[in-house]
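Query structure, 98 tokens:
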């Protein structure tokens, strides 16, 4: 009897349309969530690309050391020096390994 009354007044069609609308809204919400996550990943990748190798390693909590310059005396090869740059994690690793 209940189904007959719903059919008589068109409630069954309204209910079906509401369920379809809810499904479409849920799908749109998932799509928006995926797009937001992709945008956040792209923003993070762009920020990582702008960082120097030292900053990238520090952000990843990895030890890093790099050679900035080397100077060698052409007359006496034993006279020379090189300039290094490092992050704090590199120094910590040196201390831990003796």
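Result returned for the query:
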């Amino acid at each position: 009897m209940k189904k007959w009354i719903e059919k008589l007044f068109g409630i069954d069609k309204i209910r079906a349309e509401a369920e379809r609308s809810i499904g479409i809204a849920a799908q749109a919400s998932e799509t928006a969530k995926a797009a937001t996550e992709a945008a956040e990943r792209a923003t993070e990748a762009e920020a990582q690309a702008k960082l120097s190798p030292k900053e990238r390693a520090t952000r990843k909590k990895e030890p890093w050391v790099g050679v900035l310059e080397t100077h060698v005396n052409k007359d006496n090869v034993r006279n020379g020096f090189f300039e290094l740059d490092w992050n704090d994690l590199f120094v910590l690793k040196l201390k831990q390994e003796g």
